[in-house]
Amino acid sequence: MTILVIVIIVVVAAVLVISGAGFAIARTRRKGRGPVAPPPTRPSGAPPPGAPPGRAPTAPAPARAPPEAGVRPEAPVEAEIEAAAEAEAAVEVPAAPPSYRSRLGTVRGLFSGAVSALRSGRIDAETWDSLEEALIRADVGVATATALLDDLRSKVDTKEIRSGDDLLAALGRSIRELLETSGSRSLRFDGKEGSPDIWLIVGVNGVGKTTTIGKLARRQSAAGHSVLLAAGDTFRAAAADQLALWAERTGTEIVRGAEGGDPSAIVFDAVQRAAARGNDLVLADTAGRLHTKVNLVEELKKIRRVAGREPGNVTEVLLVLDATTGQNALVQARQFTEAVEVTGIVLTKLDGTAKGGIVVAVQRELGLPVKLVGLGEGPDDLVDFDPDQFVDALLATD
Predict the structure, then answer these.
(1) Which of 352, 356, 341, 397 lies closest to 376, judged by CA?
(2) For burial by CB atoms within 10 Å, which of 106, 224, 344, 392 has the most?
């Protein structure tokens, strides 16, 4: 009996020892558990769990190899596309020159009633009144309009003109004749070695002289000429800064002085620098001055004399006129021509006014060739004046 009890006690003790050891081992594993083994890899080509039956598996994206030491990682495809798009946008594509017909709708509207009547074949008192009103409102001028219509009436009376279409064609021819000039419409550029051409840009404040210079610099640079800008407007606040901005845009150099400085000295320095550095052309800005101020006009004469000294060669004095001012532009043209011998007219803002007939008035009364016209605010909207396109746009019905 005693032996049996002893055996039972030994067995119980052994079971307790084994159970305690197992408990201790499990606890130790929970505290310091190592890395969990990854789940088994899904066989290649097998559909992912939960995918609909028959669905083709998506090919995994290829893994990028880690970059070598000192080698820049490859940029993501999206970044490459974005960078290429930005580079393409930065390349400036020259715009097609604007057409007269697309930009002269305002002044053409004045003639639309009379033109429509002539297209229908009608020539009566109402037609003549409509034509006269259109010419005067377009600022052709009363004297010019009267002379133009008197000549057409006489041709109708003598049966030289028999229909509305004939009268419309004769009107176009007459306006073209008024736009004829003995002077050349081309911008003169001699291109003598060691003697840079000088183009002086003159006019009153607000007509767009500085902008005209910037657009001219763009045109001439594109034509292969080496251009230098002279900031001769030392009186208008920020005029030199505005011209400097155009110089930066067009890749041209600029000569500028202190605000309130002597504009003649700046133009002289620009001519000397152009001769020394081999520039072909100097575009000289001048302060906007009222044509009625005698002292300012005398200063402009001085700039003209200084610019023409050796090695300078003044080949153009371009008067910038604002087409929206109408007949007042004609008064300005007379005064400036007497002061500095203007060689040509630049007529700005022609696209935004019904007073486009001032082209005819300037041409007829002063004999000055209109060389350039502004048909918009874009950098390529300063174009050569073309009388044929101007008249066609003026009398078009579409």
Answers:
(1) 352
(2) 344
Place of tokens 């000397």: 272
296: exposed, middle or buried (Cβ count in 10 Å: 0-12, 13-18, 19+): middle
Are the beta carbons of 230 and 255 closer than 8 angstroms? Answer: yes
> Could you tell me what percentage of the chain is helix, strand and coil, using 3-state DSSP and rounding each to the nearest 5?
50, 10, 40
Query: 370, 270, 367: which is closest to 320 by C-alpha?
Result: 370
Answer yes or no: is pLDDT of 57 > 50: no
Q: Name the residue with higher pLDDT: 313 or 92.
A: 313
Q: Domain extents for the chain? A: 197-342
* CA quadruple 334, 339, 344, 347: dihedral sign: negative
Entry pTM = 0.74
Q: How does pLDDT run across 223-259, given as a tens digit for each residue?
A: 999 999 999 998 887 889 999 999 999 999 999 988 8
